[in-house]
Design goal:
This is Leucine rich repeat (LRR) protein. Helices cover 25% and strands 16% of the residues. The protein is globular, with a radius of gyration of 20 Å. It is built from ten helices and ten strands.
Length: 280
């Protein structure tokens, strides 16, 4: 058993089915000992109910999942629940309960908190949301994750939870915070130009292979700083997809010799507003 996704649909929830029950049923299956990836989808009216509804059960039964390496909390589409509506909670106890985890993904940031994490084996941390609170950013910068190789954060907009500024992002651009980090994603931001300019000469580029600044409001302003950087040229790949760069800038990227993704060019609206890819 490689991967299982558990979901409680609207109709299931109305019929009295709960995520706690699905987890208990899964734990009784003889093949669950080999389960490597568990995906928790909609746990039933996630716009009103948090993972507290089932977290205690999952933690209680953690020993039933000895091979679990990947855990995703909140994998649901907008037709089930808009990302900004998903109610989260303090998910730190899950990381404590599963010390063998290598990948942890969270979708939704309303009510989300993480205490400064200490995890000996986690290699991948992904948070997908329309606005990441600065309190969560601060917790991540204080985390002790010696094996972390990939950090992917959707920063979003202030209307949907991002209450920080560039100053809250800057600690993630320091070298050595996570010694084995090779992929850094600071994505989906309404301050993507500011982040790009800060990242262009950031110390962390000396250890990265991939920098991902996609899904945000990047324009020629931020792109100029990236193009001028010798550190950027040393990356294996730069992801700038979904952006607001001009045709002229795209031509310059194609001539730059940098492995770069500049797909999904966007156009500002009539009031010159630019929007990240994922907000509500």
């Amino acid at each position: 058993m490689q991967e299982v996704k558990l979901t409680v649909s609207y109709d299931d929830y109305e019929d009295g089915i709960r995520m706690e029950t699905l987890i208990r049923e899964l734990a009784t299956k003889p093949e669950v000992g080999s389960l490597e990836s568990l995906i928790i989808g909609d746990w039933g009216q996630a716009y009103e109910n948090s993972p507290d509804e089932f977290m205690g059960t999952l933690i209680e039964l953690a020993s039933s999942f000895p091979s679990l390496k990947k855990l995703f909390i909140g994998d649901m589409g907008f037709e089930e629940c808009e990302v900004s509506w998903i109610i989260q909670t303090d998910l730190t106890p899950l990381l404590v309960a599963f010390p063998e985890l290598k990948s942890f993904t969270v979708k939704g940031s309303s009510g989300l908190s993480l205490e400064p994490i200490e995890h000996a084996k986690l290699e991948e941390l992904i948070i997908i949301c329309g606005g990441l609170p600065k309190s969560v950013l601060a917790s991540i910068t204080k985390a002790k994750l010696p094996e972390l190789r990939k950090l992917e954060l959707y920063l979003g907009v202030d209307d949907y939870g991002f209450d920080g500024s560039l100053q809250d992002v800057l600690p993630l651009l320091e070298q050595g915070l996570f010694p084995k980090l090779v992929y850094l994603g600071l994505k989906d931001s309404e301050i993507q130009d500011e982040i790009a300019k800060a990242a262009a000469e950031a110390p962390i580029l000396d250890q990265l292979e991939i920098l991902d600044l996609s899904e945000g409001t990047l324009s020629d302003e931020g792109a100029e700083a990236l193009l001028a950087s010798d550190k950027i040229k040393k990356l294996k790949h730069l992801n700038l997809s979904y952006h607001y760069m001009t045709d002229e800038m795209l031509i310059r990227w194609k001539r730059s010799g940098v492995s770069v993704d500049v797909s999904e060019q966007q156009q500002s609206d009539e009031d010159d507003w630019r929007y990240p890819s994922l907000t509500e």
